Amino acid sequence: MKVCASCFSDKELKGFISSSSAIGDCAVCESKNQPLLNISELFDFFQELLDNFKIDESGMSLSSKIQSNWSFFSSHGAANKILNYVLPNLQTEVIS
Length: 96
Ligand SMILES: [Zn+2]
Hints:
Layout: E1 2-4, H1 11-18, E2 23-24, E3 34-38, H2 43-51, H3 62-69, H4 76-86
């Protein structure tokens, strides 16, 4: 799955994606002719992010936690699509 900078509001990540030379249509937010990055290239980044989380007892879903702790994604829709794709590919004790 390929994503564009508009899917995120994180400055560092936007910059990283914007520097990609692959241009096309975003699979997540459907922006046209954007620099795209294969999301698998961000797995390490997400892994690191998730490693900062511990299971908490509020039962809050991981994606809401990420969304509420970081204004990381540009929208809830983008967050859900991306996390649904990324999380099963990561190894973390947060998902159990
Ligand atoms: Zn996008």
